[in-house]
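Notes taken during the Thursday session

The instructor put the following on the board and asked us to keep it in front of us for the whole hour. The protein is Coatomer subunit epsilon. We were told not to look anything up and to reason only from what is written here. First, the residues (288 in total):
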Amino acid sequence: MASSPDLLFSLRSNFYIGAYQAAINNSDVPGLSQEDAIERDSLVYRSYIAMGSNELVINEVDSSAPTALQAVKMLAVYLSGDKEGAKASIQEWLSDAAIANNPTLRLIAGIIYMHEQDYNEALKYTNAGGTMELFALNVQIFIKMHRSDYAEKQLKIMQQIDEDHTLTQLANAWLNLAVGGSKIQEAYLIFQDFSEKYQMSGKILNGKAVCCMHMGRFDEAEQLLIDALGKNTKDSETLANLVVCSLHLGKSPSRFFGQLKLSNPEHILVKRAAAAEDNFERAMQSVA
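Then, after some discussion, the predicted structure tokens were revealed:
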């Protein structure tokens, strides 16, 4: 029988690679310390959120729950549509010196402000790092800011702590994709290694597919993305990648784009398409 540390390690790994149902299914870890039990519960609730079950988290986490779980609940509240309410609660807790340094609270603040595309605000809470998840989120934020040099510094810190950590390998793959060129093949090999070591997840399939698209292997990318869609028909990143892949293959992306609009109307691809349509309409009216 696996020990509690091994079971918790497995739960973390499943969550990090996007195998959310596996993380939930294997969350019955006995004999945990209070700190580890809170981490387990945080990862389980975040898995439910990743699968779209925001209401379950909102209903189960009550006001007596630890700070980390309250923060996770606010992520569910935010993603359910009450963005201002969630941000107000997060800001109130961050102004409380007794809990402001809670790593999960800082992580959730960073995630919420990354959703807002307010990267400077996100970095206020994440830049000090302290956990592998915070360092990994910093890598993502700096990539979004087109500052791969800063992302690389964060990655080096992670490599010094644990080069083989799942998040270190993922962050390395993200940075390789951002840098491009010969680094794409290195990113592909990382995702390939994950697919051999862990349960195949939508996140891994998307990672491999994006690498394939960068390398011009669109037929292979399409099959990987279809496999990912089979795991979650509402996953917005899979649908967005299928839109792009379909265009490169000369196929109509309308079905995937329609699904994306329904599942995530706030997705940047949907917003860009809407802006382009508005610009086209204005241009047509000006010459009418």
